[in-house]
Amino acid sequence: MTEQALKALLDSMTLEEKAGQLVQCNAGMFIANELAITGPDGEPLPAEELCRVMGSVLTFEDAEQAKALQDMHLASDPKQIPLLLMLDVIHGLRTTYPIPLAMGCSFDDDLMTECADMARRESSACGVHVTFNPMVDTARDARWGRILETNSEEPLLNSRMGAALVRATQGDDLSNPENVACCVKHFAAYGAGEAGRDYNGVELSERSLMQDYLPAYKACLDAGARLIMPSFNSLNGVPSVANKKLMIDLLRKEWGFEGIVISDYNAVGELVNHGIAADMKDAARLAMEAECDIDMVQCAYYQHLADLVRERTVSEATVDAAVMRVLKLKNELGLFEHPYHGADEEKEREVYLCAEHREIARRAAEESAVLLKNEGILPFRKDVKRIALIGPFAEETRLNGFWSRPGAERYTVTLPEGIRNLLPDAELNIVRGCGANFEDTETAGIAEAVRVAAGADVVILAVGEPEDYSGEGRSRAELSLPGPQMQLIREVTAANRNTAVLLFNGRPLVLTELTETVPAILEMWYPGTEAGNAAARLLWGEANPCGKLSAGLPRSVGQYPMPYNRMNTGRPKPLPDDRAVPFSSCYLDMPNLPLYSFGYGLSYTSFTYESLITSERTLKENGEIQVTITVQNTGNTAGKETVQLYMRDPVASVVRPVQQLIDYRKISLRPGERAEVVFTVREEQLRFYNMEGREVSERGEIRLSTGYADHLILTESIEII
Ligand code: BGC
C-alpha cells in the first residue's frame, strides 16, 4: 500500500476502529476462551466484537492457529486490516538455544546471529510477525530472576548481542515472509529494581542510566528494531509507560524513534496500582499522552480511548499518529497483501528441530558453558568403564529456561542420552540422590548415590536450580543450591574425588562452598534442546569449554549490587590479597571481589598473553589508534579464547569505573598457534558523561589492558590530547 492509501484508510476509520488498532488481546481468549474480559459495566465483552476491532494478538501456538486467528478477524473486519501476531520467541521457538545470559558467555556475535537466524526461520513458519525480543536490560543483581533473559551485566556485550539479534531476525526486508520484526525491551532500567525484586521501583542517577542502561536499547534501535516496550517499573518515581521524559523527550525527540511503542502486559492498567492514575480511564490518558501506541491486553485503551478523544481529553491527532505507526508496520510486513506472512504448516515440519538447527543449538550450548574450576580431572578419559550420573538434574528434561516455548522439555536431549550417544559402551549408573526444590529435605537417597559414586571411574554431579526458579516474577533472596544438594555434593565428592559438577541454572548462584568442595565445575546454565549432547561432549573433550562469565558470580548475596565496572571510592583499596583495610570500603567478613569475575572462564588448553602494543601514544578527538594483543595457545588442545580489551580513565572530572570493557573478540587457536588481535580504539569509545551531562572525553591518560575483570594484565597508557 502506498503512504497515500494508508492515509486514506486511516481517514476512513471510526474512532472505535482506531482505538481497536491500539489494543492487543491474548490469543487464549479466542482459542480456548480462557480470558474473560469485562466492559465498563462489569459485563463480559463478546469475544467476536473484540476480534472484529482489535489490531494485534499475542501468544499463540502454531501456523494453524495463526491462520485461524487472521481468518476469524478478517471475516468480520469491514476495513480488512490484518492482525499483527506477536510472540515471545526469546531463545528459539521449537529448537531452543541457551538462555540469553548463557549466550552472553559465548562472547560471540556471529553465534548470536546464527541462533537468531534459526529462531527467525522457525518463528516465521509459525506465523510470528513480531517477537518480543531482544531483552537488553543491564542486570547487576542475580536476585532478579529475569537476569536469565539478558545477555549480560555489561552494556557493550548487551548492545552487540542485541543488535546482532535484531539484524538477523528482521533481515533487510520485512515483507519477506521469512523475516520477523523485533520489539526491544524493557525500556528502561527494568533490571535495576530495588533489592533485586521483580517489578520493583528503580532509583537511578541520570549518569548511570545514560552510561550503563540506555546504550543497549539504543544499539538495538540503531540496528533497526521496529518496536520498543516500556518497562513495568517506575524510574525515579515515574512508571515507564507514562514517563514522557523517557518516551517522548528521549525516545521520540532525541533518538528519533518512529516505530511502535507497545506497553508491557497490562502495564497501562497498572498505572492505577502504581498510584499515578485514579482509574483505568486516567491510565489510558496518561499512557496515550506519553505516546504509548499499543496497550498490551485490552483493559484501558479498548474501553476508554474513544471516549477520551470525544471528550477532547486526548487529541485525535495523537491517536492518529499511533494508529498510523501500527498500519505502517502492517504494511511493511506486507500483511495487507499476504495476511498469513510466513505461516506455513509444511514449513514448520521442515524447519522445527531440523538437523541443521540442532547442530547450531548444540554448538551454542557448548560455547556458552563456562568451566569455573578444573583441578586436572576434566576432560574425562574416553576409555572409562563405569560412569556415575548423580543428582536431581541427572535425568531432567526441563533444561530450557523460563521463556522456552511450552512443551520444550519434550525435545530436550537428556544427560543420559547425550552420554550414551558419545560412549555407547560405558556402564552408566544413574541416581537422583535428592531433590532440588526449596521444600526438599529428604536425604535418604544420598547413601545410594555415595555407594554408586564409590564404585565409579568418574562421577558427574548434575545439580542446580529448578527451571521455574528464574524468570519473570522469580526473585530470590538466597542464591544457594536449593534443597539438600550441597549435602549430596559433599558426600559424593568425599566418596570419589573424580567428580565433576554440571550446573544447570538461570542466574549466577553463590558457589562459595561448592567451589571449596569439588574439583571441577562446569556451568551449563539452561543449555536448551541439545543439553545432553553438549554436556557430554564438553565433559569428554569433544568440545573445549570457552565461555566467559557474562555476569560475575558473588561470594554472598550480601555483595549485591556488584557491577564489575564499579566506581572508585575515596578510601584505600583492599590489600592485594583482598583483605579489608580499616576504614575502607570493604566488608569485615569477606573479600570485596566476586568469587568469579565478569569475563572469567577456563579452557582445557592454556593461553599466554604475550603483549599489548598501541600504534600511537596519543589520541585526538574523533581519532583512532590500533591496539594489538598477541596471544598464544600454549597447551596441547585446540581452543577458543575471548580477548577482552578494557579501559581505565585514572583522572577525570567525574568518578570513572575502575575497569570498563570497550571491545572483545573471540579467536580459535590450534596448539602452539599465535594470533595478533588488532582492535581499533576510537576516541568516542573512551567518552563519558560529564557534570553537565555531555558525552566527552577529557585530556590526559587512559590505561588500556587485557585479561578479564579484576585480573587486568599488560596495561599500556595512551594520552588523549
Ligand atoms: C513480560 C514481557 C513479555 C510480555 C508478553 C510480560 O509479562 O514482562 O517481557 O514480552 O509479558 O508475554
Offer a few descriptive terms:
binds beta-D-glucopyranose, 8-stranded parallel sheet, Immunoglobulin-like, alpha/beta, 3 domains, 19% strand, 6-stranded mixed sheet
Task: Report a brief summary of the structure.
This protein is an alpha/beta fold. Helices cover 30% and strands 19% of the residues.
Tell me the CATH architecture of the largest domain: Alpha-Beta Barrel
* Bound molecule types: beta-D-glucopyranose
Helix content: 25-40%
Q: How is the biggest beta sheet arranged?
A: 8 strands, parallel
CATH topology of the largest domain: TIM Barrel
Principal-axis shape? globular
Query: Helix- and strand-based class?
Result: alpha/beta
**Computed CA radius of gyration, to the nearest angstrom:** 26 Å
Distance between the termini: 53 Å
CATH superfamily of the largest domain: Glycoside hydrolase, family 3, N-terminal domain
Number of domains: 3
Give an overview of the whole structure.
With 721 residues, the protein is of the alpha/beta class. The protein has three domains: 3-347, TIM Barrel, CATH 3.20.20; 370-545, Glycoside hydrolase family 3 C-terminal domain (Rossmann fold, 3-Layer(aba) Sandwich), CATH 3.40.50; 600-720, Immunoglobulin-like (Sandwich), CATH 2.60.40. 30% of the residues lie in helices and 19% in strands. It contains 21 helices and 26 strands. It has an eight-stranded parallel beta sheet with strand order 9-6-5-4-3-2-1-10. Strands 11-16-15-14-12-13 form a six-stranded mixed beta sheet, with helices on both faces. Strands 18-26-25-20-21 form a five-stranded mixed beta sheet, with no helix packed on it. Strand 2, helix 5 (63-76) and strand 3 (84-87) form a beta-alpha-beta unit. The longest helix is centred in the N-terminal third of the chain and has 18 residues, at 109-126. The N and C termini lie far apart (53 Å). Residues 34-41 have low confidence and may be disordered. The structure holds beta-D-glucopyranose. Beta-D-glucopyranose binds next to loops.
